[in-house]
Amino acid sequence: MWDTVLAWGFNVLSVIFVIFAIGFCIFSHELGHFLAAKWRGLHVDAFAIGFRAFWKKKYKGVEYRIGIIPVGGYCEIPQIDATDAEPKAADGTVLPRAKPLDKIITAAAGPLFNIISGFLIACIVWAWGMPQNTPKMTEIAVLAVDENGPEYEAGLRKGDRIVKLNGETFDCSWEKFQEKLIYTNGEVELTVKRGGETKVIRYLQRINPDNAKLAGEGLPAPFFVPHIPVELDPVKGGAADKAGVKPGDRILEIDGKGDIGEHNFQTLLDSSHGKPLKFKLLRGNGTVEIEVVPHAVPNEKPYYLVGIDFSTRDLKAMEIIGTIENSAAEKAGIKPGDRIVELDGRKPEGFKEFREAIQKGAGKPVKLKLRRGAETVETELTPDRYEYMTVDAYVPCKDHPSPWSQFASTLNNSFKALSGIFITVGNKLKITKKDSQIKPRHLSGVLGMGAVLFKAAHYSFVSFVFLLVMISFALAIFNLLPLPVLDGGHILFGCIELAIRRPLPVRMIKVLYIVFAVLLILLMVYATFNDVRRIYDGSRKPAAAAKAKK
């Protein structure tokens, strides 16, 4: 009961936090307009924090308001409204039209304050460090390639090392590498090293059904598995710390075995059964060798392995493509190419049922019937018992991006997203043959931003702050687009007035404002529809999974 109450309480606090966070971005934007208008001597009718005011106070001609709904705020500056031939204050007083330079400065101040506040908040991410799913990599070794994927068809093979993406080197996490792939328009170009040769592999991306998250969004995902290196952060006083492991050490070898990554690190620890292991570590530009003694993780139940690698092409086919050296499978005489047709007299439905049967058996021998070519082979398999072992070290992955790099990344991704959408629309209209992975359906609005922030608040504080920085920067970039009703439109009109030395026709501006206001509202409705669809799909999948388990 208390767990439920705490969970609901945390969710409510997260929602409040998200509302205030989005409100802060909008408030800082409006504050920029307000301060610039006061500096340039323009009349300000009101400056509000939140909406539906419950408190008002007039001071030096400006009415300051605090609203019940704490989502952002607004600033009423009648002289900036280009649709009025004669700007009027709230009390009906006729005001002089703002000078073009005053319009430009006041309009630009909103996005500028978003950028300034984004830079200030970005310092938290810079100092604290942003969690990543993997360490940064300057090359990516290919651990496995799906034979049904476009990469395999184009020539990518296991053991290849990707050193360039679309002709450019990289230094990023696996998540960022996938992001670069998604933003690629047209063919992907991978430069790989194979032995002493360098090859260029080109292919068009496809939807990967195994990646449900991206497939649900209609976005492609790689059909190959990367080798992810392991970096350690030892717990003070733990086994790794006592052995001399330092934060950031990267594992190169364990007991002389190379190719150590996330895919086999824990297995190698568990298979030690508590015996000392010799770690070869990359530290800076040099290497060190250290002996570490793993120990069992408290309160963790043992598990059982048989040492069989199954083909991923069809897990129900139970086709064996390899066995691990000295494993239970090798001792039982199982060979690559065998197919499991019976397990203790029953036909297994697939890999999942086979794995569950091995774990439930808790190490008891199982009888297998195998199909080997045209013959049937029977054998008995005794699973090996393992315990979860640890060396008292986290496997952290943190990046410390500078505020400028966070801004540059948001700017770059915003440009790629917009250009991708235009390319997609152009392709549909037969204007260009080039295509993009980014579609109009990937647009998101305030609801989507709130949902992402809500999830981030549950994950970690710094992830929440990082997204807040991106939203602040993105709000500035969006508002600087040279379109009527946006700040960029005011700046554009101000620049034209400066150039032609006279005001633009009010009737023309009114028509443009109405047209673009309608288009913007339609765009917001469309983006909100996308957000609702994502949230609905996201809530439906866990429910469907829970129903399937029953």
Radius of gyration using CA atoms only: 30 Å
Overall outline = elongated
User: Oligomeric state of the chains?
Assistant: single chain
| Count, helices | 14
What is the tally of beta strands? 23
Q: What's the number of structural domains?
A: 4
Q: Helix content range of the residues, please?
A: 40-55%
Averaged pLDDT:
86
Strands across the major sheet, in which order? Answer: 7-6-5-4-8
Going by helix content, strand content and strand pairing, the class is alpha+beta
N- and C-termini, Cα separation? 23 Å
Description:
Helices cover 42% and strands 22% of the residues. It contains 14 helices and 23 strands. It has helices spanning 2-39, 100-128, 150-154, 174-182, 212-216, 239-243, 265-270, 328-331, 351-361, 403-428, 446-459, 461-479, 487-500, 506-549; strands at 46-59, 62-76, 130-131, 140-145, 161-165, 188-194, 197-203, 224-226, 231-234, 249-254, 277-283, 286-292, 295-296, 303-305, 308-310, 320-323, 339-343, 366-372, 375-381, 384-386, 389-390, 393-394, 398-399. A five-stranded antiparallel β-sheet has the order 7-6-5-4-8. Strands 12-11-10-9-22 form a five-stranded antiparallel β-sheet. β11 and β12 (286-292) form a beta hairpin. α1 (2-39) runs antiparallel to α2 (100-128), α1 crosses α11 (446-459) and α2 (100-128) runs antiparallel to α13. The longest helix has 44 residues, at 506-549. The two termini are 23 Å apart.
Summarize the model shown:
This protein is an alpha+beta fold and 550 residues long. It has helices at 2-39, 100-128, 150-154, 174-182, 212-216, 239-243, 265-270, 328-331, 351-361, 403-428, 446-459, 461-479, 487-500, 506-549; strands spanning 46-59, 62-76, 130-131, 140-145, 161-165, 188-194, 197-203, 224-226, 231-234, 249-254, 277-283, 286-292, 295-296, 303-305, 308-310, 320-323, 339-343, 366-372, 375-381, 384-386, 389-390, 393-394, 398-399. The chain has four domains: 2-129 and 453-547, no CATH class; 140-226, Pdz3 Domain (Roll), CATH 2.30.42; 231-300 and 390-394, Pdz3 Domain, CATH 2.30.42.10; 303-386, Pdz3 Domain.
